[in-house]
Structure formats: structure tokens, C-alpha cells
Amino acid sequence: MKRFSRFLLWATVCAVFVAVAVSPAISADNIKMGFVFSMTGGAASYGVSQKEGAQLAVDQINAAAGSGMQVVPIFEDDASVPQQGTNVYNKLINGDKVAVIIGPTLSNTAKITNPIAQQIGVTVLGVSNTAGGITEIGDYIFRDSLTEAVVIPNTIRVAKEKLGIKKVVLFYGNDDAFTKSGADVFRKALQAEGIQILGEQTFAKGDRDFSPQLTQIKSQSPDAIICSALVEEASGIVNQARQLGIPKNVRIIGGNGFNSPALMKNAGEAAEGVIVGAAWNISSTNPLNVKFVEDFTKKYNHPPDQFAAQAFAGVHIAYQAAKVAGTADGRKAIRDGMLKIKGMDTPLGKFSFTEGRDADHTPVVLEVKGGKFSVFVK
Amino acid sequence: MNLLAQQLVNGLFIGSVYGLFAVGYTLVFGVLDILNLAHAAVFTLGGLSAVWLVQAAGMSIWLAFPLATLLAGGLGLLINAAAFAPLRRRADSQFSGLISSIAMAIIFDAAALGLFGARSVRFPPGTVKVHVWQIAGVTITSLQVGIVLVATLLMVVLTLFLQRSRTGKAIRTVAENERAAMLLGVNVSGIIAFTFFISSALGGAAGVLYGLYFDSLAPDMGRSIELKGLAVIVLGGMGSIPGAILGGLAFGLSEVLTVAVSGTSNLRDAVAFTVLFAILLLRPSGLLGRGKLREA
């Protein structure tokens, strides 16, 4: 009896050894992807949506791959702060030995964490960073989220074409990096299109009373109000503009900060007609997108947003890069595979990377209609 | 001309909310010679609880507004009982009361954060039916008119109450001389508690009106009005109720005109507080202050 139990013990130990020795051999065919999303903290609403989009993509890829290369996802929470992002990056790169990292949610975090991955040579694919200076960190850093510098000029061009706007007023928050750089891009785009800027007004973070500025704007009778603001202030501006009697045909045109359902929730009726530039459009008839929206809604019981769509596309792009490279763990080969992605079909549209490893696909212009974003047709 | 008129109207509305807030502030100061620094937190809780009453309990704003005002008044009683009354007989109770009212403010802020969350909240659309009037090119909404009317009404009622009613006279007696009031048979601690009730109720009412007008309430909204309220009562004259109203309007107008002229809101507070500084240098008792008279 005693001998038998000793045999069992040894058998167990051997089994464990074999399992440990064999498992890397199995996982060599499977690609380990690290996901760094803000699941808690200030950006939690974005991060949760991203995780849903990514999980859907992983499930579908694995179901379709059969005995081929499977995706092993490792989800981590950066708590919306760069310090936690740094810890998570170190764990994923050195501990889990992931082949590629998708994330982080915030540009602010990316600026701190991405140099870690760049130094070791791990590909990072940002799926929501839109600020400048992200892909400039190094040649391992990519993103599939369109930057403000791409979206805004397109918005202005389309708005000019369809509305014939000639003179506008620029209204922006001048104490925030995101809204300020958005205003710079707007200004440049307006000049490029030959639209006259009648004047500029600014506000500060946390302002609630915008009526003095809006009264000035009203007196200049612009064709449209160009506004760079985060959704909190944007809602107040839209609301108070209509309260002050700025007519509905004077459209309010916003940047990425406006691109949130919170705008309609906060401003209600006043949000109707607001024009927003975006990277993705839920009602696009692109078959891949129709399927994505259907599957997502079925799985989670609510429609996806842009963050989910970009995360979903990101998983497919990274997987495609590994397939092109013919490896699941060659970090350098996967980076080279990323560079070879050209005109790939995604729910975002035909997707390529620019020379600077930024996203390249057609942006869309949306307008608020009946309390929802739909494609701007006039 | 239209432009200037519209800006003056804008200033009048925000100014009347500042005035209402400052009247409550200055009332406690006038009676007790102490500053209640939890006043801004009561303002926040008044506004947030009105949102809660409308949104979660499904009340009409006409019911939620008085209820939130009463609730804010109740908070005033709590402030008095917890932060001021226990210290009143001790030496230096003015300073220690000031400090303990800061503690109450922190407790109230944390309560607001815990109860209502960090995000800004709004009254549901259609809480107040808004009509828009165009008068000689100036746009005025029924909401704005309502805010000014309610603020004016409350201030008139308060003034009449203080001048005519028995309790009002008792409050003024306590303000003049606590010991004499006591000798005349006035229930001093009761009057003080009542003063806190009225003061906080007015602060809460200002919070509701502020929330209705800007359609955005957050647990930190008291912070933006706290210093302004102080500046307003210094500007108008500490302890003077007409002064607080006048100061509120002057402050509101100066803010709006600064933004209108400079095209940016960065200078808004700078100009307002520079005016305050100048008043302190030139007329330390404020516009309508009674100066040193009362202490004589």
C-alpha cells in the first residue's frame, strides 16, 4: 500500500513535468495576445466596451481556426492610470511573454507604457489612441484608430460641400491638451478649405455658463459653430446655444469629443443636427460590419460603439499579421507582418497602415438625427 | 445694442443665483459673526437631492423644489447642532466653529459623492417647460424669468420676515446683542438654530435654481460658487442682506461682461476678484456695509 502511494506520487510528479514540458510545444502554434484596457477608473466605460469587442473577435477567430493558430487572450486592467499600465506591460512582456499587445485605452497611458514595449521589441497596436505623438514612439508601435488630424479635415470638407458654409466661429476649451490640439487641427482645416473664421471664443474646464461666449457668437451670425470640447462641456454648449436662440440651421460641428451617446443623453432635443467626425459608422452596409453589429448585439444585448469596433478590428489585424508572418511567437516577424497589411477588409472599411504606422481608412461624418448618430447626408 | 442688452440679461440671471446663495451666507454671518463654510456643500446637496426627487421618485419639480429646500434647511440644523452649538460656550468659538464647519463641508461633499456618484447629473428633459421669448432682439427663456422671480420672491419674503415678524425681530435682536436678547426672554439657541435653517434653505434653493439653469450638477459644483459667495458678501458688506443681493448682481454682471469683452473665460475670475480687492482697499466695509457701527 505504501509502495503504491509512493508510485502515485511519482506518477503525478512525472505527469506535471510532462505537461509543463509539452505545453510550450502546443502553444507555439497559438498566438498570445495581451490586452491592456481601462476596465476601472475614469475611462472604464471605454475599456469595458473594448473588451467586449476584442473578446468577440477572439471567440470568432478561434471557432473558425479549428486546429490552426488559436488566439490566447490575456486581459489586463490599467485602471486608467499610467503607473498601473506600466506594471501590466512588464507582466505581459516578461511574465506572460505575449507576442503582441493591444491597447492601452488612453493616449495618456500609451505615452508612458509604449516605450517599454518598443525597447524590448514587442508590437503594440493601439485601438483607441487619437492624440499625436503615439506612433512616433518607435517602429513597433501601431494603431488602428484614426487620429483627429485625419478625421477633422474630412469633416470640414464634407460639411462645406453639403452645407456651403463660408464663415464660422471657433469655440474651444483652451486649458486641455486634447481640445486645444483639436482646435489647432480645425483651424488648419478651415484655412485649407478657405472658410473664413469670424472669431474665436474659449472656455475653461469645468465651466457651466457658456452664455456670454455664445451671445458674442450669435451676434457674429456665423454659418456654423466649430467646437472642440469634451462631451461634458459639449452638452452644455449645445444646450445653451439653442436656448439663446441660435437657429437650428447654424450647425454645431464637433470633433471626437462629441462622438459619444452621452451627448444626446445630456442635451436631448438640442443635440439634433450636431455634426461629428468619426472613424466608424454603425449603420455602414459593409457586409463585415453588418455581421459584426449583429453578432455583437446578439452576444451582449446592446449595440457596439466605435471603441468596440476598433478593438474588434484590432484583434483581426494582429492575427492577420501573425498569419502573414507565419509565426505565433516571433515578435520581430509579427511586426514585419503588420507592415504588410494593405487594404484588409474590416468593419472599419478597407484598412491599411500609413508610413507612420497610423490607421488609414475612410473616415465618416455623422449627424444626430432622432436621438441617434447616423451618416450625414444633409 | 442688442448684444449688450443680451449680455446684461445673462449677467442678471447668474447674478440673481449668486445673490440668493450669498444671502444665506451673509445671514448667518450677520447674526452670529461666524462664517459657515459648509454653505457651499448645502448648495450642492440641495441641487442634487432635487434631481434625485425628480428622477428617482418621479416628482414634479414644483414639489421637488420646496422639498429639497426644506431638506437643505434640515442640513442647516445639523450643521448648527454638530459644528457650532457644542463649541459656542468655549473661548474662541468663532475660529473653532469656522474650522468645524469645514469638516462638515468635507463630510457633506463625501456624502454627495457616495450618494450621487462622481458623474454630472441632470434634470430629466422636460422637467420645466421652457418657452423662449424674443424681446427687441434679446432672447429670454421662461426658465430664466422663473429663476429671477423665485430668487427675488425669496429675498423679498426674507427681508419682510426679518423686519416685520416677531421671530425676525428676535433674530435681529440676537444679532445686535446676544446677552440683551437673552435678558429680554428670547430663546437664543432656538433663534440661532432657526437662522441656520433659513440660511441653508436659501443655499439649497440656489443650488436647485443653478442646476436647472445650467442643466448640469456634480458633487464638486459647490466649489465653483464657494469663493464667489464669499466675495459677493464682502463686496456687498458683510452681514448686509441688500448688500448680498447687490453684490451678487454686480459679480454676475462683471463675470459675463469680462467674458464678452475678452472672448475667453480665463479672465472671468481674475476680473471679479480684482474688483473685490479694490473694494477691500477703498471701502473695506463693502458697498452697503455698516462698518464699525454695530460694535459700538
Task: Describe the model.
The complex is a heterodimer of chains A (378) and B (296). Chain A is α/β, with parallel strands linked by helices. Chain A has 2 domains: 26-146 and 284-362, Rossmann fold; 149-278, Response regulator (Rossmann fold), CATH 3.40.50.2300. Chain A is built from 12 helices and 15 strands. Chain A has helices spanning 2-27, 44-65, 82-95, 107-120, 148-163, 177-192, 211-219, 231-243, 262-267, 287-300, 306-325, 331-339; strands at 31-37, 71-77, 100-102, 123-126, 141-143, 167-173, 196-203, 224-228, 251-254, 275-278, 344-346, 349-353, 359-360, 364-369, 372-375. In chain A, the strands form 3 sheets. Chain A has a 7-stranded mixed sheet, covered by helices on one side. In chain A, strands 2-1-3-4-5 form a 5-stranded parallel sheet, sandwiched between helices. In chain A, strand 11 (344-346) and strand 12 form a beta hairpin. The longest helix of chain A has 26 residues, at 2-27. Chain B is mainly α and 296 residues long. Chain B has a domain at 16-221. Chain B has helices at 2-32, 39-55, 61-84, 93-116, 142-164, 166-176, 178-183, 188-214, 221-236, 241-262, 268-282, and strands spanning 132-135, 138-141. A two-stranded antiparallel sheet of chain B has the order 1-2. In chain B, a hairpin with a 2-residue loop joins strand 1 and strand 2. In chain B, helix 1 (2-32) runs antiparallel to helix 8 (188-214) and helix 2 crosses helix 8 (188-214). The interface between A and B is medium-sized, with 29 and 30 residues.
How helix-rich are the residues of chain B, as a percent range? over 70%
The named CATH superfamily of the largest domain in chain A = Response regulator
Name the average pLDDT of chain B: 86
The largest sheet of chain A has its strands arranged as 7-6-8-9-10-14-15
CATH-defined topology of the largest domain in chain A: Rossmann fold
Biggest sheet record of chain A? 7 strands, mixed
Report the C-alpha radius of gyration of chain B, rounded: 19 Å
What class, by secondary structure content of chain B?
mainly alpha
How far apart the termini of chain B lie comes to 48 Å
Question: Number of helical runs of chain A?
Answer: 12
Q: Sketch the major β-sheet of chain B.
A: 2 strands, antiparallel
CATH architectural label of the largest domain in chain A: 3-Layer(aba) Sandwich
Radius of gyration of chain A: 24 Å
Q: Class of the largest domain in chain A in CATH?
A: Alpha Beta
**Biggest interface between chains:** A-B, 29 and 30 residues
State the assembly state of the protein chains: heterodimer
